[in-house]
Amino acid sequence: MGKTGNLRRLTPIAGTIEVRGILGAAVANLGVRIVGGEWPIGSVIAKEADLVTELDVSRSVIREACRILGAKGLIRSRTSDGTRVQPRAEWRLLDPDVMDWRIQAGDREGLLRDLLKLRLVLEPGIAYSATVMADDAAREKIDAAWDAKKFIHNDTTLNEHDWRAAFIEADIAFHQAFVEAVSSEMLDQVFSVISSALDLQFDHQLEALGRSNRLIGMDGSYEMHERVYRAFIQKDATGAENAMRNLIHCAINDAESGFQQ
Question: pTM for this structure?
Fold first, then answer.
């Protein structure tokens, strides 16, 4: 996800343009403050001259930063009305930078709940459709993704840090393979944005279950993924759908357990 000095500018759910250096830092600074509620919805943010002094940047940097934040739906500038914070319904909540700013502003739980609800709505149907629609190439890709996930699950040669990174990568690739099997470019783009924040979900699930060892408690998750895969290769679309729904419900329960600690 975006970092203070290396900010990505997004068109609606689409490709990125790197924004670095002073401008990237200014956009991130203001983005976190807006998302965090320093300026309430509908209120005018600090004056341009004050932001120039506070952030020690030029007026052109502030203006460009506001333009970028406006493109992300966070603010709207009018000559007669100032620059006001837009309602949350206008925010591009799937923008990786906005997701990152929510975390920095202390809304980690809210973001994770949003992501899990989105996955619960989308992924069971994706599993069903992939099982019905996948061609031979898509089936081979899902087979390969499962083999990679199985290999990582059983690998005892990696250290904790590398294993976790490899596990997350393999898990996302498994889910991504189902999305790609549906052959919808729009769905591909939606999921590519969601996946940019999935490492947050995995880390929270592991923390929620108190996993101090990389293999403790992983068998249940592995078995649920295996049920999705087995239903898929048996061309049992309803079974794949139900298995995916159960898998995500488990993730939600793990997350909620962590929130209550």
Answer: 0.81
